[in-house]
Specification:
It is a single chain. With 200 residues, the protein is of the alpha+beta class. It has one domain. It is built from five helices and nine strands. It is globular.
């Protein structure tokens, strides 16, 4: 579930970062499988329509291991080495984006996309934002966007994501400012240093 949220953030992240910093922790199949079991338990709870109040904890290590190992094949093409850092009410996502793939999609709207015109290959990206979550919905107020060593306005991220995420199911693309429903009937998602708490 948090993986889904992070994916939304990461997919939204066609643009972002400073020079790549070392990963904060090693990836492991044990952590990836731990998160898989938690997701299966949450899905079972949803299907059984359990109403008992519950909080499920995902660690930062579990999220990163799941995204890069279990979920790697389903990540958007051209995105790799994703690293999520969780802090109080804030999420930071880093990774490498293949700018040539992104430029191809953005180019469909005609004209070059400013900073992208001068870059090629895998480029480090980074975004950070504040999560607001209540009553089964969440929004992320994006605060900083870096592409390689360049800080970009959030509007540039918005334009890039809208262009890069258009498809038959979503002809208008993904709006990074729009509220999103939390999966699995989660009532609230709380972020703390190194972990995420899902309240049902």
């Amino acid at each position: 579930m948090v993986a889904g949220l992070v994916l939304a953030a990461v997919t939204a992240a066609g643009a972002q970062s400073m020079p790549t910093a070392p990963r904060t922790g090693p990836l492991s199949w044990d952590q990836a499988n731990s998160l898989t079991r938690k997701l299966q338990s949450i899905e079972k709870r949803r299907l059984e329509k359990t109403r008992k109040k519950q909080t499920v904890l995902f660690t930062q290590g579990e999220v990163n291991s799941y995204l890069n190992l279990t979920y790697a094949e389903k990540l958007p093409k051209g995105l790799k080495d994703v690293e999520v850092r969780l802090d109080r009410d804030r999420i930071q996502v880093k990774g490498l984006v293949n700018i040539d793939r992104v430029k191809g999609k953005v180019g469909e709207r005609g004209g070059g996309f400013g900073p992208l015109a001068f870059l090629s290959g895998d480029v480090p990206v980074e975004i950070m934002g504040k999560l607001i979550s209540r009553d089964g919905f969440g929004t992320i107020q994006w605060e900083t966007v870096y592409l390689s060593s360049m800080r970009l306005p959030v509007s540039a991220l918005e334009q890039l994501v809208l262009s890069a995420t258009k498809n038959e199911a979503h002809p208008d693309g993904f709006d990074i400012h729009a509220p999103f429903r939390l999966p699995y009937s989660v009532d609230r998602l709380r972020l703390e240093p190194g972990r995420a708490l899902l309240d049902f």
